[in-house]
Request: fold
Amino acid sequence: MLEIKHKRSKYDRFFLILPYIPLFIGALLMIGPYYWMVISAFKNIEELQAVPPKFYIEHPTLDNFYNPDWVEGTVGVQQIQGLFQRYRDTTGGFLRYYGNSVLVAVSNTFLGLLVASIAAYVFAKHKFLGRDALFLLVISSMMIPWQVTLIPSYLIIRDLGWIDTLTALIIPAISRPFELFFLRQYIKSSIPDDLIEAARVDGASEFRIWAQIVMPLIVPALVAMGIFLFIGEWNNLVWPLIVLQSQDMRTLPIVMSTMVDPFSPPFDQGIVMAAALIVSLPTLILFLLFQKQFVQGISLTGIKG
Reply:
């Protein structure tokens, strides 16, 4: 009996561990490229060109970011031009592109959440003629492929004189139907109508109800949607590529797309990895700081009508 129980305990342990094996493999597949990017950003030329490749750093260096030994006009393996020493034709260099992306992503996230939260509160807690039909119309717009709207949007931006300005990246992205749908469902399912009615009886205005009651209660949903919005705008390439023309107005995705060149010299690999590491930091930090609210917002958001 003891041997049978011992064998069963081994089988039980195996079946307990079995579901985690695919998760472990999936985690390695997702973390692996990021790990390689991090170590490559701090490798020197010899380690980057090593065959077979090494998955550790022997002699860490910051030359891929800034090389104090670089002299303008020299080219070669020993004269690596660091990331922050490039793009000298642009005022501020790489940091200018970083600032453009931060401005666009933060503005779109803040303004998008502001407009969507107001509209979501109206659709969730107000009754007016045609409310459901209007909401259905807004939601149905999500079925239109975004590629279809590129040419009409470009023509509008051109007529407004916004070509080659960051305004062309901010204003059109403020209102999005998915933000409205997401926040409306959260407000409708998590905030009781009695609470809103009690505030109205006490004489609170609609703006005060939205600002002091609704907004604090939907922070998890705002954080979750804010992370989605920020990452989407941070990685946006197609629309900026269409409306931006000058180098000073470029955002990071455009710059990164120009750095990936199959004909570039081997010592540029470290520069590309250094840029990719810096570009990925804001989204990583954002998720780590608001991980709890992000998970809570996703798990508590209802989908009932």
Summary: Residues 94-300 form a domain with the MetI-like fold fold (CATH 1.10.3720.10). The CA atoms of residues 197 and 298 lie 27 Å apart.
